[in-house]
Task: inverse folding
DNA sequence: TAGGGCATCCAAAGCGCTTTGGCTATGATT
DNA sequence: AATCATAGCCAAAGCGCTTTGGATGCCCTA
């Protein structure tokens, strides 16, 4: 069923039917009701493509998910983020178009989305430091919003980020308050902006307590279980091992836990762990008392809000780009406790 | 830059330029070369919308991800599956459109995709038993392919599935061979077809060894870490506790491991664990020797292949729907060993 | 020399929608 | 009674592409 058929069916012109359906005023209430009823009865929906062609809008948002060619790793937070963003799009009649793409093809993808007029805007995932995508998108004039920030990109752009720095600063301070002095950081890849900021927060806290930054206590890598395990195991075997560990993701924290327990040590007594928790639906951090003490911030909520920001930009171009900085909650769970006494 | 401008620029008609770009024969080699060069120089790409309108194809595939409203859980395998499918689409000039949708809205979504002519076909994720989506899609005449199968749906349809039944049958048998008799199953939600089949495989093996199916040894729920932990903890506390556990996902296996170690037991000695491993990029099962003995099958590869099946259907409608049954590998890792001797 | 066959190219219609620029009554205004 | 808004509707153009159904030369054959 298309507009033409529907309007013939009603004995009206396409113009009138279109206007009735899109809420224009120059249609009588009676006619509008009749049209709406018929549309429902015939399950009529305007073709997105035709509508897009006629209006010049794509009614779609692109999500370009970077995948480093080497590791072929898809960020696990992505599912939940997308779920949040999708909610917002659905409410506003937008579609979500996904491209998963190797780093070196990204430029081509963005240019393609632009020149094919496939989307009205894009969400930038996983920003790195000095991320080249941001100037590229600005040059292309394709509206965008960034999940995270890109240190080094000067011109203003729209973003939503967790305050990673303050979250990790607070978490580290919390460990100091419990008497820990040897605190390790198992971080994500530090080309990623969020990892960079977390490290900065961690170092801030160390400096505030006059503790030297010790490279032996810092690891950086892709946040897998195995990475958390190996890093922890290695550090625990060294002399002057850490009594507390900051992990950048729940998944690597699970690995850290495995290494700790494998050494016959007890979490929360011999070794404390704090992790960042993105509140992923399939990786919930415990029941009444969370398993891990964690800095928590829902990535799904982030998706919802960032989608709103982008739709705003598209609806009112030319405004100052909006930015949201979410504060993570520090949730005390069972994985932290006072530093063990020196024997 | 659009076709009109490009063709004016070249002093050719739109027809000729279009034909040159789309590989039609009635264009001289010289002209074609000239056109292609200009298209590259101006970074011209035909508008997907206009092309879609003109050809009647959407050049897009829909992925409708169900999300049970209650649990709001996004299946974690979804990211890797999508990455695989996306590769295939990119190679064939298709876009991927994503809708994440609560169970009760699914019907509306499919009808919408159809009547808005937004996609040429859809991938059905997470089929349940007697899944109503399959007859619905058949009725709508929207091409589709299913990731998994739906027991109870009689009319033929295209699908790709892991042989869950034989995988779990073999895994269970493997445990019997090691001397285990009390084998527990920590399964996914058994409305899900895959979970149903895994259970059937497990029960097959029990029967083949004349061991009664014991409901006390079977759990079914959403495959989170916490679910794996709680199920294992509870079962280990009972008299006549299991000496081996079959887990339906690596994530719940991690929870099972936690429970086992919390009891002061050793994995692979006191309690053996076998899990299904979807080979997710961020959850790799160990290094040289896998941590967990596992039935393994790459969900990313599944995405690649299923996308192909669907594109085939779209290109050649009316053929017999293709189906692929992948066999999982049984990879021996460090989490299994002979059953402990009775004291 | 006329006709046929090819190789190249083009004008225009059409895909399904929105939107511009009318047109026609009807009732209010002077 | 003549004029004028206004409400309510419509025809047709246009969005950027593909595709149908010719045109136009040019070379070859008879």
Result:
């Amino acid at each position: 069923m298309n507009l033409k058929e529907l309007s013939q069916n009603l004995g009206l012109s396409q113009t009138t039917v279109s206007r009735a359906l899109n809420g224009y005023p120059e249609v009588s209430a009676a006619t509008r009701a009749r049209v709406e009823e018929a549309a429902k009865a015939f399950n009529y929906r305007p073709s997105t493509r035709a509508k897009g062609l006629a209006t010049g809008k794509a009614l779609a948002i692109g999500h370009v998910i970077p995948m480093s060619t080497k590791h072929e790793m898809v960020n696990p937070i992505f599912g939940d983020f997308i779920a949040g963003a999708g909610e917002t799009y659905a409410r506003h009649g937008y579609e979500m178009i996904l491209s998963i793409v190797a780093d070196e093809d990204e430029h081509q993808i963005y240019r393609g989305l632009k020149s094919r007029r496939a989307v009205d805007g894009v969400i930038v995932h996983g920003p790195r430091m000095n991320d080249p995508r941001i100037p590229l998108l600005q040059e292309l004039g394709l509206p965008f919003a960034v999940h995270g920030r890109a240190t080094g990109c000067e011109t203003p752009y729209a973003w939503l980020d967790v305050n990673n720095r303050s979250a990790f600063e607070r978490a580290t301070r919390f460990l100091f308050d419990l008497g820990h002095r040897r605190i390790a950081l198992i971080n994500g890849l530090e080309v990623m902006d969020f990892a960079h900021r977390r490290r900065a927060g961690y170092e801030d806290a160390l400096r505030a307590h006059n503790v030297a930054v010790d490279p032996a206590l810092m690891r950086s890598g892709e946040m897998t279980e195995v990475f958390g395990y190996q890093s922890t195991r290695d550090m625990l075997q060294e002399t002057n091992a850490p009594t507390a560990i900051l992990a950048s993701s729940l998944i690597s924290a699970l690995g850290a836990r495995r290494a700790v327990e494998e050494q016959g040590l007890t979490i929360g007594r011999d070794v404390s762990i704090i992790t960042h928790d993105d509140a992923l639906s399939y990786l919930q951090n415990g029941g009444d008392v969370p398993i891990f003490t964690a800095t928590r911030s829902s990535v799904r909520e982030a998706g919802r809000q960032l989608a709103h920001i982008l739709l705003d930009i598209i609806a009112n171009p030319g405004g100052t780009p909006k930015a949201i900085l979410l504060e993570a909650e520090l949730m005390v769970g069972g994985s932290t406790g006072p530093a063990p006494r020196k024997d």
Q: What stands out?
A: Residues 3-42 of chain B form one domain. Residues 2-4, 14-15, 18-19, 22, 46-47, 49-55 of chain B lie near DNA strand D (CB under 10 Å from a C1').
